[in-house]
Each structure stands twice: as structure tokens, then as C-alpha cells.
Amino acid sequence: MAKRKSFTASLPSLQSITYRFWPHICKQSHLLIGAFFALLAETGLRLLGPWPLKLMFDRVILPTGFNVHGHNIEALAEFSPLLVLTILAAALVVISVGQGTAAYFSTVGMAVAATHVMADIRSQLYNHIQALSLSFHTQAKSGDLITRVTYDIERLREVTVVAALPLVTHFLTLIGMVGVMFWINWELALIAIAVLPFFILTTTTMSKKIHKVARTQRKREGAMAASAAEAIGAIKVVQALSLQDFLGKTFAKNNRKSLKESAETQRLRAGQERLVEALVAIVQALVLWRGVQLVLAGSATPGDLLVFITYLKVAFKPMRQLAKYTGQIAKAVASGERVIALLDTVPDVRDLKGAKSAPAFRGDVRCQNVTFAYDPEKGILRNLTFAAKPGEQIAIVGPSGGGKSTLISLLLRFYDPIEGGVHIDGHDLREYTLTSLRQQISIVLQDSVLFATSVRDNIAYGALGASNVEIEAAARLANAHDFIMELPQGYDTILGERGATLSGGQRQRIAIARAAIRKAPIVILDEPTSGLDSTNEALVSDALNRLTQGKTSFWISHNLSTVRHADQILYIEHGRILEQGTHGQLMAQAGRYAQMYRLQSGSYLSDLPARSHAP
Ligand SMILES: Nc1ncnc2c1ncn2[C@@H]1O[C@H](COP(=O)(O)OP(=O)(O)OP(=O)(O)O)[C@@H](O)[C@H]1O
Known about the structure:
The chain crosses the membrane at residues 30-49, 82-105, 161-184, 190-210, 275-292. This is ABC transporter ATP-binding protein. By secondary structure, the protein is of the alpha/beta class. The protein has 3 domains: 7-344, ABC transporter transmembrane region fold (Up-down Bundle), CATH 1.20.1560.10; 365-440 and 520-612, P-loop containing nucleotide triphosphate hydrolases (Rossmann fold, 3-Layer(aba) Sandwich); 450-509, no CATH class. Helices cover 63% and strands 9% of the residues. It has 23 helices and 10 strands. The strands form 2 sheets. Strands 6-7-8-3-9-10 form a 6-stranded mixed sheet, sandwiched between helices. Strands 2-1-4-5 form a 4-stranded antiparallel sheet, covered by helices on one side. A hairpin with an 8-residue loop joins strand 1 (365-372) and strand 2 (381-388). The two termini are 61 Å apart. Bound molecules: adenosine-5'-triphosphate (ATP). Adenosine-5'-triphosphate is lined by residues 138, 374, 380, 400-406.
């Protein structure tokens, strides 16, 4: 995870973030250029702000004897004092309205441009996360990923208006004011800027402290978001284990700590603001002390002094929030780094150079000496070889943890083998693009995930753009049509998140319909009937038989009786195919499969008398 940095330390990162997002920024160039010109206009008008007052002092209120300097508009000397006063009063209003209008356009221009840029980046990030390999997603925390797509992007957007824009405005204003002050009176200007080193020293020291506390707070917030997402995602387990109180207390503890850090940041900020106010008071006193002497000596006008005092207030006061602005920018840089780190993550499994779109498969699947490990230290599949002819049903059985699901993941190219290869119709999977490969494989898993949308859409996700007739035909094949019609809005019924409003058997049948509509030549079934009651199991099995008709299918099952009719059975243990053949052949071998089968059917038979005697 990217580390938070102080503002100065984050400048190079700021540069690289800008460079990285430059193409997105360029798309908004017209808005940004407009906003920049509005910003320049605002700064110019801000510099002009105190001048009507100065001229009122020097031209209208005070005797002409005070007009010792050349900083007056000579043309005004032609007019009567009342007319001058009226012009200056009107000028005050024009300057103020002009400044407000320019500020409005610069803020709105910047905000709109930032919103567009961030919307672009957010979409890019979302698509990138979707494309990342399973090896990444099994390690990543979904709460953290969601925080990057939402919170981090939002902070980047927000910072442009709430920190970067004011910072640039104040910086330009400061430079302009220092220039004008030297033009009016270099001696007073020197006194005014003498305070700058102290100012910079105190603000940087304080900023560092604030950043340190804010960094800890941000880390804690990230962890809190991740643990909240995890607990909410697993709410069923949390409630079943009655973990609410325990998890609630842990969350509350972190929350309290985060609040404490937030209060500490506020305390430091308030302290810094008071310090800057004191510095501004000191510099104002010094300017007044020397300025009044210069006015009395006739080398400056009272109006000049007024301009100085106003500039000091205008230029330095917003700078007391320097820590706030720089802090926000430093935080945004950390967010930008998190976003870039994610965008830079290259999927382990991706389209190789020269990968082509797969032709329609016949369904000849071969594994040739496949070896695979999630962790290089711990081999999972070892030298697996088998072949499935088009239309054959292959059962994959064996003890838990043997590597059955892992083998299936390789067929879908969720992972690539370390050695050997998986071939379809004589070609290595890696020759094809991922999308064209997966489009020709249907899957039904043990706990099929449905989406919180209509039943119709859930089925159509199997083949985007499918017609209503195709959707209904798929539902009928999956034995799902009848129960769907009994739902409140039939096919338009909106399901709960992950299909929570349906029974396990109903979920499976919609998942089978989703797989059926794909009309893929290869079907993968990973324990699709486990956990179902006998009625549902019969309905689902019947649907699965129709789904796999004429397709090459791979069926993982712990219940050997459901797959005994398979054309080929692979018995996998400790990542090796120990036995391979039809049910009859394996039973005749009297090996591990036969032992497992007898154990299962034996317990089933011994159950029967007990069942038949049940009331
Ligand atoms: N994403 C992963 N990262 C690291 N190890 C994993 C991952 N997925 C599975 N494993 C490990 O790989 C081994 C094989 O797991 P796999 O899920 O393929 O077994 P299985 O035969 O399908 O088991 P089951 O019948 O219980 O579903 C197990 O030791 C498991 O801990």
C-alpha cells in the first residue's frame, strides 16, 4: 500500500500522477484553460481591491499635501472630489463583483473538468480490476479495492477544487502583492517579507506533525473499511456465529482511535492558525510602526500604508490554512499512488501477444503433463495427463483438497500451468483470447452467485443480448420456468443480493439456465448438487443431464453415485490422477475409487432400514 508523504516529499509523486493522468486531463483542456484565465483575472482584481480606498484617502479625505508619491491616478485630479468619490465607490463594487465572477468561473470550470477526468479514471480503474487475475483477487481485500474506486478517486477529484485551486490562487496573489508592495515602497515591503522565513518554518514544522497524525488516521480508516466490508459481505456467518458483538466492539475500538486522531489533527491545525495570526499581527505592527514614520516624513501616503496593511491581511491570512491545503494535497497524492499502483498491476493471466479469437470448439480437451502451484513452494497438481473427446462426460472425483477445482480453474484459464499445457481441439488455450475462450465454456458451481437484478437479466448474463424466447427456453431446460412464473413478477422479479431471496435449488436452476443459454460446447460443473434436498437434487440433476447433452462436460462430485455413468472418471488425490477409467473398470481395479464408492454406497444402504422405519 502507498505510504502517505509530506507535501514537499509528495511533489515528485504529484508530478508523476499528473503525467500519468495527462491524457485524461488533456481531454478537458478547453475547460482548464478557461478556468486558468478566470483565475488570473481573479488574482488581478484581488490586487486592485484596496486601491479605491487608498485613492479615497489620498485624493478625497486628506489635504493634497499628502500626495507626495506618484502612486495616484493623475487623471482623477481633473475631477471634483465628489465625482472622484463616486467613481471610486463604484470601482469598489465593480472590482468586488468582477472578482466574485472570476472566482465563480475558475471554481466551476475546475470542478467540472476534475469531475470529467475522475469519471474517466474511475471507469478505467473499474475495468482494470475486473480484468485482474484470480491470483490477484484471492489475495486482495474487496473493501480495499472498493475504497480505491470510490474514496481515493473522490479525494483526487475534491482536492483540485478545495486545495489545489486555492493554493494556486493564494500563491499567485502573494507574488503579485509582493511585487506591488516593492513598487509602492521597498522599505516597507522588505519589513513585510522579513516574516516569510519564520512563516515557512512554523508552517512546515506544524504541517509535518499534522501529516503524521493524518497518515495514521488514514491507515486506520482503510482497515476499518476493509473489515466492515468483510463483515457485511459475510453477514450470514457473522450472525450464525453470533459474532456481531465481538466484531462491533473491535470496530468501535478502531473507530474511537480514529476519532482521537481526527481531534488531534484539528487541535494541531487550530494551533497553527493562531500562530500565523500572531505572525501577521507582528508584521502589521512593524509595517505600521515604520510606515507611519515614513508618512509623517512625507515619503509615503496614508493610502500607501492602507494598501500595505490590506495586502498583509489578504496575502498571509489564507496562508494560515497552508497546512490544510498541503495536507489535503499530500493525502490526494497518497490516493493517486494507490490508484496508480492498482492500474499498474498486470494480470498474471492475460491475452498473450498474437492471441487470436478462438474458432467454434468441437470440444476435444486434453491436459498434457500439467503441473501447477499457487505458491512455488507447494505443488498442487503434478504431471496430470488426460484426454476428453467431444461430447464425453468426465467425472472428477477424489478426497477434499486433492486439486479437483484447481484443475477446472486451469481449463477456464483462471491460472496458467507452470509446466505442460491444456489443449482444446489441438491448440494450447494460451493461443486464444481469454474472452473468446471463456465464451465457449459454461459453468455451474456449488454455490452459484446470482446478481441483484431481474431473473431475466440473470439468465441473459450467460449470453448478453439473448431474446426473451431464448431466456424462457433456457429456463425450461433448467426446470426453472415453473417456479419463476410463481415469483411475484415472474421473469421480472428482482432478486436479493447474490440471489439471497431464492432457495439453494432455485438458485442452482437459474444458474443452469444461465449456463444453458450460452450454448457452449464445453460445460463445467463443480459440485452443483451438493447441499440440496432430494427433490431439488432430482430436479437439478435432470436439468444438468439436459444441459450436458452432446457437450464435453467436466463434473466434479463428492457423491460418486451421481457420476457413475460418466464416460471417464478421473480419481485425483494429492494433485495426481491415481486412477482413470469407467466406473466398471475402476471398480474392477478395486483401488481407491472402488473403496470410496463402496464406503459411500455402504453407508447409504445401512441408512435404508433406519429411513424405512421412520414414522
Ligand atoms: N487460491 C488459492 N491459493 C492458494 N492455495 C489454494 C487456492 N485455492 C486452493 N488452494 C489449495 O489448493 C489445494 C487444492 O484445492 P482444490 O480446491 O483444488 O481442491 P478440491 O479437490 O477441489 O477440494 P474440495 O473437494 O474440498 O473442493 C488445497 O490444498 C487448497 O488449500
